[in-house]
TrEMBL record:
Keyword terms of this UniProt record: Acyltransferase, Transferase
Annotated GO biological process: secondary metabolite biosynthetic process
Acyltransferase found in the keyword field: yes
Molecular function terms, GO-annotated: acyltransferase activity
Name of the protein described by the UniProt record: 3-oxoacyl-[acyl-carrier-protein] synthase-3
Length: 311
């Protein structure tokens, strides 16, 4: 059974107030107030002097017992939101492998599910390791990016992109954080993402809660559980109001199930959100041994994914 052997993250200490960031991108004062008061954003972590490879390496080096795990790593996977994450000829994943002494591993990227590629990578590498049948072998999944184009720094009415990163070691026989269920759906009529006709974009926002609620129920059902069995939801950090609509579709009163502690100060860190939230929830005691919990992600395009695990 696929399991998460270790999870670590890196969030730059330097941050920019959301007001200043959005004003720089041409947002009106009214729209800025909506992002602050209703969507829940306050600031986002940015480190202009660091490269994407710097951020990914920092996430890996934050992992406890890294030296013990290192000889067991067979795959290194960067779960990307954007098909291109650095200007040519830079290759961040190859640089990461070089700096970490992992040149002998098989390294590749996944981008097909955009911000949901992190959960996809957990599922894919778990299947690969199971097929290899090499006892103790691990895959290192990396998530998080630096938006090096302005068009990728803000998704209007959805999220403001921060620069947090995460590193996840995936195994097949770990004693905790076992994957119990996974579901993903792609609704191709929204393939244009944020760069689509206004009427299609409006339809996406209208139908979004139902699509996410459906995939959550599918993941929970595939684990043989019900929503009452879920202790906490570790979400992707987007528009707080959209989450209230999703919970209503799931028949859940209030937002106590959601872990939103990082939304205001981290923003939406591409595919790294759920794993950053995992670290914080575990450190704060919100996630306890034996808890069944849910990770969610939605990628532009539009892919909706949910994964159920047992801590």
């Amino acid at each position: 059974m696929t399991s998460l052997e270790a999870v670590s993250s890196y969030v730059p200490k330097s941050a920019v107030p959301i007001r200043d960031f959005l004003r720089k991108h041409g947002f009106t004062e009214d729209r800025i107030r909506v992002h602050e008061r209703y969507f829940g954003f306050s600031e986002i972590p940015l480190d202009p002097g660091a490269t994407l490879a710097d951020h990914l390496v920092a996430a890996v080096l934050a992992m406890e017992d890294l030296e013990a795990y290192r000889p067991r790593i067979r795959y290194v996977v960067h779960a990307r939101t954007m098909p291109v994450v650095a200007p040519y000829p830079l290759n961040p994943i190859q640089e990461v492998c070089h700096r970490l002494g992992l040149e002998e591993t098989t390294a590749f990227s996944l981008t097909q599910h955009a911000c949901a590629s992190g959960l996809l990578a957990i599922d894919v590498t778990g299947r690969m390791l199971a097929a290899d049948r090499e006892p103790g072998a691990l895959a290192l999944v990396l998530a998080g990016e630096k938006a090096f184009t302005s068009a990728a720094q803000v998704i209007n009415d959805t999220g403001v992109m921060g620069e947090g990163t995460s590193a996840v070691l995936v195994g097949t026989d770990g004693p905790r954080d076992r994957v119990l269920g996974y579901a993903t759906r792609t609704h191709g009529k929204f393939h244009g993402g944020a760069w689509t006709a206004p009427e299609i974009n409006a339809a996406f926002h209208e139908e979004y809660p139902g699509y996410l609620a459906e995939v959550v129920e599918a993941a929970v059902g595939s684990a043989g559980l019900g929503m009452a069995d879920i202790s906490v939801v570790l979400p992707h950090n987007v528009n707080r109001m959209s989450w209230l609509r999703v919970l209503k579709r799931l028949g859940i009163q209030g937002a106590d199930l959601l872990y939103l502690d990082n939304l205001s100060t981290c923003g939406h860190c591409f595919g790294a959100d759920a794993f950053i939230n995992y670290r914080s929830a575990r450190q704060s005691g919100r996630l306890r041994r034996g808890d069944r919990y849910l990770m969610t992600a939605v990628g532009l395009g539009a892919t909706f994914s949910a994964m159920v695990l047992e801590h």
